[in-house]
Amino acid sequence: MKKLFTLLLMSGFLSLSMTSFGQCDPPTGLSAVYNNNVSTFTWDAVPGAIEYEIQFKYPVYSWLNNEYETVTSTNSLTLTDIIQSSTFDWRVRANCGSGYSSYTESQFTLPCPSPSALTVTNITNTSVIVNWTPAPGLNTNISDFAIAYRIANSNGAWISAGRTFGSSKTITGLTPGTSYEYCVNQTCTYFNSNPVIGQFTTTSTGCGVPAGLNVLNITATNATVSWSGVSLTSTYTVQYKKATSNSWTTVNTSATSLLLTGLTASTQYNWKVMANCNGSTSGYSISQFTTAACPSYGNNNSEWIDFFKLGSINRSSGAESGGYVNTGLSTNLVIGSAANSGQISAGFSGNVRNQKFNIYIDLNGNGSYSDPGELIINGGSINSAGTINFSINIPGTAVAGSTMMRVMMRRTSGVSSPCMTVFNGETEDYLVNLVTSSLRGTGSGYEVVTVENSKVDKITVSPNPSNGIFNVTLPRIIEPLYYEVLNLSGAIVKKQMLSNKAVFQIEIQNMPKGIYMLRITDKFQKQLTHKLVLN
Asked: Is the pTM of this model over 0.85?
């Protein structure tokens, strides 16, 4: 059964008899307002009307398959606990006794309300508890909160602190004596709330914390990390690891920079540095970088990319050292979207020379630009020092998540390979976050099934058996709200909001070996299950 209203009482429908009055005009002035979990629907009163009939449905359904309907003797209706962030059609008609008028239709999208009353407690030199008050109305089975933090006023990338169904979260691994800003988002069914942002400052220690973290000369296998010096410091401790790893590599140095070698291409790394001050230590300063997908660099003494814009990326630059730069900048692009407009221009030393540019996006996130369709722009032309417009499409087959984008410009003949080196021109790497649309169509429903015995498209889980990390891909028919992992006793050992994500990863490495059940619940509260085997 489809459920538009999670807690709406469906009883008490009125069935009023009709008497012989005149035919009604259709209602006008339809309006809908949301406030504090209360949705109020109004329309102008129709002269002679004795009742009004109101219906609600999802936009993809016909009115024969409406979600809810009722009648009222007044020209307004108040409802509570409608699924926040949901879009639906609603219509109303009047009855003047001899029959109903025609319907008047409208559409309404409920907001995803932001949490409020942010506070911080239990502040130490490396941790803090952030607290908030949830907005009323969402069942915690289908909604949680996402928390992130970063150095205050840095405009750096947000660092995820995880998600919770509660109203507080502990953030650890912070740097002593440092000001941070943090944000909390409500994660609703179809789109998230606006973030609520607060600030706090960790307590200090006697040893200064390294600042000015920077990463230079990033290639597919190497990167140089650097930081500002701290007075009274004898050595520094640097740690780095893949973002997905639980194990750090530790190096001590007396310098304020360190060359990291033997890295993996197209991989995000976390790194941190602390000062050792003759018997005491500071806290760690933390940063991230992503290695290049494969080496690519040009001879850019005469020509280089001096401007690139796409989405929220907007970068002006001179000739990059070595003919290559990994910018670390990123933007969101919607899977299945068309005509994402951008701009590029070339800088020249001396005469203007004809240039060609290519743009590659790793659409499946496998660390390579060589798969079909990943050459997004093939040989765009630059023949002046002015700005050139371009447009790109993101196919519906792209895999959601953060992935690499490479922009290459070469003199005259264009770029034939994403891994080309020693050409006249320049290469710039960026990140793009491939996301699903916040208001996808709902599609048709499906039955509660165990996938192994179902005739519907199957859930893909790999590897399975696994050492605790399972990659899950859902059929496009499913619009999931959340997943649960259950042990053989039926106890829920893990639960996570999905918000329509069709591709996601489950990590249960710390659970005992054995058989578990994955249970996925969709927006209609229907469920699919799949067996997981943990080695």
From this structure: no
